[in-house]
Design brief:
The structure holds two protein chains of two kinds. Chain A is of the alpha+beta class. Chain A is built from nine helices and ten strands. In chain A, the strands form two sheets. Chain A has a five-stranded mixed sheet. Chain A has a five-stranded mixed sheet with strand order 4-10-9-6-7. In chain A, α2 packs antiparallel against α3, α6 packs across α8 and α8 crosses α9. Chain A is elongated, with a radius of gyration of 29 Å. Chain B is mostly helical. Chain B has one domain: Cytochrome C Oxidase, Chain A, CATH 1.20.210. A two-stranded antiparallel sheet of chain B has the order 1-2. Classes of the chains: A alpha+beta, B mainly alpha. At the A-B interface, α1, α2, α3, β7 and β8 of A face α3, α6, α9, α10 and α11 of B.
Chain lengths: ~400, ~525
């Protein structure tokens, strides 16, 4: 009787779930796999789950039979055996043990072996390399062969997160710069981090690997279907852990070539802009934009920061002080030095590897002339370029 | 089988031991200390539970409603630390204090003053863990440790002073555990009644002996790891910093060298309860006593050689991946022996279904789910999908809530009448079981699906496709949390009065503890019983 209740509750739960099926939003299993690795993982998972469920149901059935039959209320008299006594009983106790041994190391063990070998085969026949660098709380992507490099940050507005606006379709899963990859090419993905451990994970790729500061790790993906694939950081990395999504756009090889050319042109124009003299208004405008993407999470929109972990920029001694000495060199721990070289052991990153000359120059100019800071000076992209 | 010579004088007052607060502060009595351990565990269980209620309330729907992400991160980490170190471990130690001397026919634990000291280290440790929350209210510091209970470097190197508090708290908790373990080992090896050979020892005692060895072996490694973390934070060492020649992954190896055996430290005492309870209510002797002892040993030894399966995704050489995968799968074999013995113990018995039996049967079924999902997690390729996702969260709550907490509750209900001398309210007890079992499944079944769908763990906010499952899970969690208030009520009611419990308490109960009166005299066995 007791177990009927338990089953009734599970049936009720199943009913709640299946009513949701109408909305078809529910995922009952891994999302659709789009790489050989993800297909293999799904296959292995399905097979192992079926085996596990079968084992569970058999054992449960034996228990339920016993619970209903061997009960005092039915007048069942207790036996008093304490172990297998006859030869056939010994064999019967060894059968489940042998069966499990077989399941563990043959039925599950052999496919698992092949999966591991496949998962770790990152180098053979790799067509291209993508380098992924995790930072609190954004991803930096680099295509070493093509010379392309950009930062990808979340675009979900604060208003949506704090329930002031309606949530968009890709709430928390949208970024400004998508990673674009060609389909049917084996991409060797190298991972590292600039601060703490992050984990790069796109469920549909079946690839999940940690990005570890000071070390290079690798995984791979051969995307078989064009589309946009979304994932998230999977290792707790601080307050922005839930807010550093990953978006990969898989396109045909021709489209990929077009995208690569566009990116190269963009980088070239950014490099060219470093040479020209910038007006203060232009610097302030770009600076506000960069600040909104790179700095706002910690230092906040009003520049007040979240002390003591994230210091305020408004009225900061560092900002309201000199940044270059008479010879035009960086003053150690001055404003520009801090932005370009970061601060070790904190979330303040080395932005010179992440941002262009114009972006660094403009954001520094912006910070020196906002939040009540009135330094009045500015930094030219050319100066930043020279200081690299 | 066993005969006991019970001292007939119920000598509560003839030693002139202090009363009032001094009785508890200075006590060297195993029962008083056991009681304090269990009350402490119950209080911390509620504290840790309240924290997770806050987390589930925040996760009820997408968007940040109640708290900032920083605070969310503090709640999840401190919840885990409290539940593991301040709830599950103390309840097991409390039961050990009460039961081991009674089960082996001893008057008390071997080292009574050490016993007092190991308990009284716990309240300061718990205070240290929670204090940063309170300090932050007064504007001191940034709150409690926000790295999750695993304290992974370099995040924990970067964290605020909550990390330092956690480190010192872990040191105190570790000292407490080691002292308690030494006491358990010495008691078991030296104070058994004449005739009680090692193999005749009750299974709970056996399970604790192995638990104690595991604690003594692994806690120092954790202590070392957190000390290295402390010096990395404050004294410019670079154990976990690649820039100084260190390695962040070293921390994970050290942590999980402790952390995996810790799972069995939490579960072995519970597995020790099961044969006692199942055989009592099946009115049938324990099946496979020896087989269970050997399984305990096998699991204990294997538990220290499989640690790296907790971080397959850091990237390891193929031979390491294969070794940790196959060795982890191998643990399923001794565990299967235990399951076989538990089921064979009730097979062809004459069962009744009082609350301890319900919890024990619920434990076997739900812990089975935890074990089987653990088996699939061992597979490296599939683990790449499960790892760091809600699938893992659901898995370890099946092992640690259904396996740990519900198993502990089975033990508490089983021996509570022996401890207090009163029967608990059977009807309320059964209600508590059904509420707990149903709301537990309602909480954690959806989390399996969330994990498969790709929801990472430890995120304060989630994408819209995860909404419905999170809502169901949160509702289940609230019900689960509220149900535990009933547990507190039942225990208080039972301690205060109720139907008088007989010496044997349960019709089918066996063991030396059931030859003593209920409640047992202050010094359990003043004359040693002789076991034949």
């Amino acid at each position: 009787m007791a177990y009927k209740k338990l089953f009734a509750s599970w049936a009720g739960l199943a009913a709640i779930f299946s009513s949701g099926l109408v909305h078809a939003e529910y995922a009952w299993n891994f999302p659709e796999p789009v790489t050989p690795l993800a297909r293999d993982t799904l296959h292995v998972h399905n097979e192992f789950m079926l085996i596990s469920i079968a084992i569970f149901l058999v054992v449960l059935a034996i228990m339920i039979y016993s619970i209903f039959t061997h009960r005092k209320s039915k007048g069942h008299q207790p036996a008093n055996f304490t172990g297998p006594s006859t030869k056939s009983q010994v064999i019967w106790t060894l059968v489940p043990f042998a069966l499990l041994l077989f399941i563990d190391f043959v039925v599950m063990g052999i496919p698992a072996f092949h999966s591991v070998v496949m998962m770790e085969d990152t180098k053979t026949d790799a067509d291209m390399v993508l380098k992924v660098t995790g930072s609190q709380w954004k991803w930096q992507y680099e295509y070493p062969a093509e010379g392309i490099k950009f930062v990808s940050t979340i675009t979900t507005p604060e208003g949506q997160i704090y329930n002031k606006e309606a949530k968009g379709e890709h709430y928390l899963l949208d970024v400004d710069n998508h990673v674009v990859l060609p389909v049917n090419k084996k991409v060797r993905i190298l991972l590292t981090s600039t601060d703490v451990i992050h984990t790069w994970w796109i469920p549909q790729f079946g690839a999940k690997r940690d990005a570890i500061p000071g070390f290079m790790r690798e995984t791979w993906a051969r995307i078989e279907k064009p589309g946009i694939y979304r994932g998230q950081c999977a290792e707790l990395c601080g307050k922005g852990h839930g807010f550093m999504p990953i978006v990969v756009e898989a396109v045909s090889e021709a489209d990929y070539k077009v995208w690569v050319d566009q990116q190269k042109a963009k980088l070239a124009s950014a490099a060219a802009s470093a040479e020209k003299q910038w007006g203060k208004d232009d610097l302030m405008k770009l600076g506000a934009e960069v600040y909104g993407k790179q700095c706002v999470v910690c230092h906040q929109a009003n520049g007040q920061g979240l002390p003591p972990t994230f210091p305020a920029l408004a009225g900061s001694k560092l900002i309201n002080g000199p940044m270059l000495d008479a010879g035009g060199h960086l003053i150690k721990d001055g404003h520009l030095d801090r932005v370009m070289n970061g601060k070790l052991g904190t979330a303040m990153q080395v932005f010179k590897t992440m941002l262009s000359d114009a972006e660094i120059a403009s954001v520094v100019t912006f910070e020196r002339n906002s939040f009540g800071n009135k330094m009045g000076d500015m930094v030219q992209p050319a100066q930043v370029k020279a200081l690299r | 089988m066993t005969t006991a010579t019970v001292s007939t004088h119920d000598d509560h007052h003839d030693h002139g031991h202090p009363s009032g607060i001094k009785r508890w502060l200075f006590t060297t009595n195993h029962k008083d200390i056991g009681t304090m351990y269990m009350i402490f565990a119950l209080i911390m269980f509620l504290v840790g539970g309240m924290m997770i209620m806050g987390v589930r309330a925040e996760l009820f729907q997408p968007g940040m409603q109640l708290m900032k992400p920083e605070f969310f991160n503090q709640l999840i980490g401190v919840h885990a630390l409290i539940m593991i170190f301040a709830a599950l471990m103390p309840v097991a130690t409390g039961m050990a204090n009460w039961l081991i001397p009674m089960m082996i026919g001893a008057p008390d634990m071997a080292l009574p003053r050490l016993n007092n000291w190991s308990f009284w280290l716990l309240p300061p440790a718990a205070t240290l863990l929670v204090m940063p929350f309170i300090l932050a209210l007064f504007g001191v510091g940034t709150g409690a440790v926000a790295t999750g209970w695993t304290l992974y470097a370099p995040l924990s190197v970067q964290g605020g002073m909550g990390v330092d508090f956690a480190i010192f708290s872990i040191h105190l908790l570790g000292i407490s555990s080691i002292l308690a373990s030494i006491n358990v080992v010495v008691t078991i090896l030296n104070m058994r009644a004449p005739g009680m050979t090692m193999m005749k020892m009750p299974l709970f005692v056996w399970a604790w002996l192995i638990t104690a060895f595991l604690l003594i072996a692994t806690i120092p490694v954790l202590a070392g790891a957190v000390t290295m973390l402390l010096t990395d934070r404050h004294f410019d060492t670079h154990f976990f910093d690649a820039a100084g020649g260190g390695d962040p992954i070293l921390f994970q190896h050290l942590f999980w060298f402790f952390g995996h055996p810790e799972v069995y430290i939490l579960l072995l005492p519970i597995w020790g309860f099961m044969p006692h309870i199942l055989s009592a209510f099946a009115r049938k002797p324990i099946y496979g006593h020896k087989a269970q002892v050997y399984s305990f040993w096998a699991i204990g030894i294997m538990s220290v050689i499989v640690w790296a399966h907790h971080f397959f995704t850091v990237g390891m050489p193929i031979p390491a991946l294969l070794y940790f995968m196959y060795s982890t799968m191998a643990i399923s074999l001794p565990l299967a022996v235990l399951f076989f013995c538990w089921i064979a113990t009730i097979w062809r018995g004459s069962m009744t279904f009082e609350t301890p039996m319900l919890f024990a049967l619920g434990f076997v079924i739900l812990f089975g789910i935890g074990g089987l999902t653990g088996l699939v997690l061992a597979d490296v390729a599939a683990d790449a999908q499960y790892h760091h996702s809600y699938f893992v969260v659901a898995h370890f709550h099946y092992t640690l809530f259904a396996g740990g907490i519900m198993g502990a509750m089975a033990g508490v209900y089983f021996w509570l009448p022996k401890f207090t001398g009163h029967m608990y309210d059977e009807k309320l007890g059964k209600t508590h079981f059904w509420l707990t079992a149903i709301s537990f499944n309602l909480t954690f079944i959806p989390q399996f699906f969330l994990g498969l769908a790709g929801m990472p763990r430890r995120i304060p906010d989630y994408a819209l496709q995860f909404t419905e499952f999170n809502m169901i899970s949160s509702l289940g969690a609230f019900a689960l949390g509220l149900s535990q208030l009933l547990f507190v009520y039942i225990i208080i009611k039972c301690a205060r009065g109720g139907e008088k419990a007989s010496d044997r308490v349960w019709e089918g109960a066996k063991g030396l503890e059931f030859t003593l009166p209920s409640p047992p005299p202050y010094h359990s066995f003043t004359t040693q019983p002789v076991v034949k």
